[in-house]
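Hey L., structure's done. Input below.
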Amino acid sequence: MIDLHTHTTASDGTDSPFALVNKALSAGITTLAITDHDTTSGWSEAISALRSPMSLVLGAEISTLTSDGISVHMLGLLFDGENLEMQKMLAESRDTRLPRMRKMIELLAADGIAITMEDVMAAAPDGATVGRPHLADALVKNGVVATRDEAFVDLLHNDSKYYVTHVAPTPESAIACIKKAGGVAIIAHPFASRRGETISTASFSTLVNAGLDGIEVNHRDQSMDERKQLTQIADELGLVKTGSSDYHGNGKLNSLGENLTDPAQWERLESLANQRRVVKP
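Output:
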């Protein structure tokens, strides 16, 4: 069982890296990717928890923006964690999240919604990449909404009046950085329309020219028709097809292993990295 997209308390998940690895072992996951938002800070702890028969794939989910302002998430896997250019891109993306969070809080507060930056920081684990899920958790704690999902549906979705974008690399520049660091690039949930505006079918050719390796086809936020369309695009463009849970722990309904990557597709994807970087116990 291969799950190539999960999150820990290093970003907006609710399980520590150590706990996530143990949960994945219990769930029968044989290959697990740690892909926290714009950070590699959970890698070391995840490695410390690793034991047979599971292998660990180290990566990150990188926030990007197209030239026309559409949010695209790019999964970088198997890259060199010591690569300075890669770490610079991740750090710059993290740095832009705090001003964005302050602006969202200002917009919410202006409409009488009880929330402060202190509330959000209290909801985020130490060292975590601060994001909307932490704002959602603070809204739950303050009694504004009942659940994190409700916060996103009612207040924090991409088309909300309270949503604020942040400075981010383009998808093409993120792909180029991942590739220079020796990794592979997979576009995450590209047709997840419930999250907001999505890229067009025509955009994939440009991403392939930049070095895109794969498409996350099987994801709970994509309908069966969208998955079929993405499968066709991947086959036409010669891209690897992946599936994953996008697990966040208690914060979302996603379950470990609810969508998986075919072993043959994973073998092909791993071969595209410049080194064999899968961590084995």
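The chain has a mean pLDDT of 93. The chain has two domains: 2-95+167-271, 98-156.

-- N.
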